[in-house]
Structures
1.
Amino acid sequence: MKDGYGREINYIRISLTDRCNLRCVYCMPDGVQLLPREEILRESEILRIAQAAAALGIRHVKVTGGEPLVRRCCRNVIRGLKQIPGIETVTLTTNGILLQERLADLKESGIDGINISLDTTDPDLYRDLTGGGDVAIVTDAIRSCADSGIRTKINAVAMSLENEPLLEFARDLPVDVRFIEIMPIGYGKQFKPVDNRRILQAIREKHPDMVPEETARGYGPAVYYRIPGYRGAVGFISAIHGKFCGTCNRVRLTSMGYLKTCLCYEDGTDLRRILRDAALSEEEKDRILQEAMREAILKKPEAHCFDEPQSITENHLMASIGG
């Protein structure tokens, strides 16, 4: 369906959990106050919301967290999402720590793509950034994921202009490497975002034959380039210095069941309340659920306000919102 500004909303990011097995400096370095399990959406509730979303025109689903692979039902949720009429693609974003041991299950579930978060290949820096993570586990998982035939992408929060080691994945493997400008949400407010335009220029200086990528690489806002001879593409998601609100096609579902239409604002629609209202029949729940989602999408803000920090009303950590 279209929102109030005529944008086609066909993409939802669904957070399975606020829990994570890393402590990244810009996300949850001190951990989070974990929600009681009964406040987290059940597997059946997630799928029911996804069915309502598909009826409204959602075609692409990204499963996120926290770290989605720490939740045991992740594979079942993905399999269930793949069976919903209207859903065309289901992909996953993970930090990669548990990916190697879950890869066969994910492939069996029908996953269409996996995005792996990796900001650096330097073991010491990775350990510092993630609160003790082992980068070798992640790099091994990236190679295994690419070798499995699953469409694989690396998400790197833009921390510096020294990105050549990450680009080696795109050179050697069919893996897209995307640089993401850090957003002023939660602990991200403490970091000055690196301008993706500077990263692009630094890469161009080393690879002057780089050209824009003409084939579609997904359904999000990334802009891609191709370095001749590289097996994967290089992408840029530039929320701060390349504002793409005019073409935004997404909404987010938090692990607590709040439908958020813009990352910048705290506003959300409580879908869990509808699903757990004992006074409603099952038919009424489905009808009201769709109506609530439709109304929220129609009221989606025209643009984020990251360039006006004083106007940001979202105060939750990214792990609580859904990455």
2.
Amino acid sequence: MNLQKLVADIEPEIYQVWKQIHMHPELGLKEFHTSGLIEKELGQKTHVDRMERIGDTGWLVEIRGTRPGPCRCIALRGDMDALPVQEDSGFPVRSQVEGVMHACGHDVHTSVLLGAVRVLEHYRDQIAGSVLFFFQPAEEILAGAKLFLESPLIDFGSIDGVAACHVSPEFEAGKIGVRRGPIMASADKADITVLGKAGHCAHPHTTVDPVAIAAQVITALQQIVSREVPPAESAVISVFTIHGGGGRNGCTIIPDRVEMGASIRAVTPQVRAHLLKRIPQVCQGVAGAMGGQAEVELELGPPPFVNDDEWVERVRRCGETLLGKENVVDLAIPSMGAEDFSFVKEKAPGVFVRLGCRTPGGPYGSLHSPTFYTDRKALATGILTLAGIALDFFGVDYNRLS
């Protein structure tokens, strides 16, 4: 029996797990049903060497190989949480929880990781070292990876490589996508307060108008991207909220302050550092030139996820063997979305893989939208990919099963 046959045999059971997770989505740090289901599946259908609770809902699972030789360790991750989105009612399998759905495919990631546990158990005698599985909560609120990083149960110094996958509606189920270098962006936030002098709307010359200053600040921030970031690089500064208070008589009042929030994204550490340095300078400079002030508080999020060349080649090698060369897609550009697994990636080399999820010839369903969906074929593809990466890491012939 080879790896493809093994995955095909367990896929129907993994699909049933996926259905349960999909129909009972849970928000970050509240994944109790999902966590309990994973505990039950692992307890009844596997013989893992270690299973430890991480936080209230996460799981650390370990398979220890029995092959003699120098021990190495790889960590694989699947996230578990859903989003506050109402799923489109047209899907045959859909959320049973009002206002919550797996609009980012974490139900798939969790199911795929469970499948990888079940598969890799069969190769225990060919593994010299350990495979760690991170069933991670709260990716969407950027809290889950930190739970693992802060856990005394995990020695990150002993981990030699990390890997994870994420569904993508940009290409069809059955395919995977990978690229050298950056594949996901950083995601930082700026809270900007523009301070002026309040007064009557009919007498603007007696005020320092923070609304007018804020408008100039927004325009100037875009100049950082268009004139200071090399055209071949990718960066985004998006002001996503702006608020100025005037109370009930706000139609006659120029406020004394305007508050804004901005999302900051970059795909290289160098560009990220430049943006974080320049945003406060530009805000303060523009406000000062117009007679006001600006205060900027930066909140750092995940760094860019930068794939290591050796690991990209590993994905291509096992992907072409297990899925077919035509099903391994070289991604031309990185996504400007972010991923909290980047925090873990800072601890070890590794790779992030995009997992096609759109039905061949079917409609496009955007991530984080009510119409997002995953074709069932993505489950087997994801299991083959994660298991293949781990087996290639250990130098195992994945077409020979003991």
